[in-house]
Hints:
Shape of chain B: globular
Helix content of chain B: 55-70%
Largest sheet of chain A: 7 strands, mixed
Radius of gyration of chain A: 14 Å
Structural class of chain B: mainly alpha
Domain FAS1 (chain A): 1-130
Shape of chain A: globular
Number of strands of chain A: 7
Strand order of the largest sheet of chain A: 2-1-7-6-5-4-3
Organism (chain A): Phormidesmis priestleyi
Distance between the termini of chain B: 16 Å
CATH topology of chain A: FAS1 domain
InterPro entries (chain A): Adhesion/Biosynth-related, FAS1_dom_sf, FAS1_domain
Number of domains of chain A: 1
Oligomer: heterodimer
Structural class of chain A: alpha+beta
Strand content of chain B: under 5%
Order of helices and strands of chain B: HHHHHHHHHHHEEHHHHHHH
Protein name (chain B): Carbon dioxide transporter
Protein name (chain A): FAS1 domain-containing protein
Amino acid sequence: MPSIVDIAVQNDGFSTLVAAVQAAGLVEVLATGGPFTVFAPNDDAFAKLPPGTVQTLVDNPPQLARILKFHVVSGIWHKDDMAQQATLTSLEGSPIPIRTEPIFEVKNSTVLAADIIASNGIIHVIDNVILMG
Amino acid sequence: MNDTAVLSPTLSPSTHEFSEVIHRLEAGGSMLPDTPENLKQIIGIYKAYAVPMDFYWRDLLYIAEKVFLNPLPAFKYFISDKYLDRPNAYAGDGADLRIWRGEADAHPELRDFMAKGEFNRKLPKLFHHLWHDRVNMEFAEACMEAMLWHEDINPQFNAYLDGDEYKQNSDLAIRAYFKGNPLMLGLYKLFPDMFLEQVKKLSYYANLGLFWEVMAPVFFEMSDLYDEGKMTTVPEAMDFLVNGIFAVAGRPIFHHAYIDGKCYEIIPKSQGFTWLYEAALPYVEAVFYRTAPFRGTKSYNAQAGQVPSDQKDFHYGILYADVFPVGSAGIPPTLLMQDMLHFLPDYLIEDYQQHGRGEDDILIQLGITFQRSMYNVTSAVIQALRAALLYPLDDPNPDHLKANRQFFEQQIDRFKRPEARLRDVQDQSYR
């Protein structure tokens, strides 16, 4: 079964996320560590950020890694598992608000595709880059 | 107010005391009404602010990195040429991200003022300093102290400052700095926490210096765009700030000290602290909203509850300031006003001459202009937070629009208290 990183690399629409994960030096941990639940912003999500935002982060890997870690939760959380959870704690340390009804939303993003199973975790595709606060 | 708010068809009108402002924010506007007069005032003052700010950020970093723990820092405001020439990371050809099209070293108007001062004569630097004919760096230090003192607003940064790693990093730098100085090393052995506290303060010098290094070119660029006729409305000015906030949000906040040519990473970049979370947002909260009552302006009786018992309820920042009594010699806001006075564009000087008492109350007039401009900066922060944490203004989902409404109303609730100047800045006659 492909890892979280393999799925992101093999599917269209995640090139920015893959590049960001590489720049932040998180490839290995997301490929072999885990299990993780990853809220994966697609390319359109990154494109919504104002000009320069992604570039500044890519130029500064520790800061980029912090933002990316906000998209990752330890353990495997299916959509159904999250129904009883108001928040999950990200690897960054800040809480991520979750709503599964009426629509599946993670903070201020909407889940476009849920429960994509990887060898070392699970991916939920989201339509916004989420930020702490 | 002559701007018209565009109400979302899916939400009923706000019943908030400042509903007009709420609707304006929901339509993508600023807390400040969109008028040509407001635009002229805020851009003019941004330019006048950016020049001394170009000194503040350079000197803050000079103190944090080079002056460091000098026990008699009499010359800490005598910034070295190296720091005047230091390229701003957001201006010039070699910029990380070029925000201002101008040059990266110290602004020519700043260099000119540093050389001649109000005397307009080249005299020895020490003379200008002792005559207080110089940039009022004490203002920058007051802002830094507000950030240091309101420690609850920067939890991750302060947790690091209180941790063992920071203690070890500081210890290395302290020992290196006082190498060959048995007196200071002895004092360090006796009072280690006192020295550590001083290093923490220096880390806030670095924090604020790195924050303002961004804002100076942002304000210079806004001024240039206005002069070129390319920035024509208040919302455009606010949006420029919003985009700037996002563009540099991930800039590292760190503290390096340079001792005997060696770099000591007291807060390394690898710690992951960012411009947005560890500098910009704490700065706005500490300086725009809270600060502390300024000594010498007004007497407060803490036992009678005239000073809030909780620091988070402090409301002595520019957004609440009564600029008239605040305009007393020697206190931080007046120091800034005096600094901005030296770099006002001609169109603002002409404006002030025609209002109030002309040049006699120009510090008050420009202080109120500054207050207007900071309502616009705060609007940019509110809109940036809304964009980062909530939803687009044209989101089709009514629940999302309700969440935006709730956020805007919570933010504006802070201006319900009588000291707030939000109501005043709606009116052009408030000068």
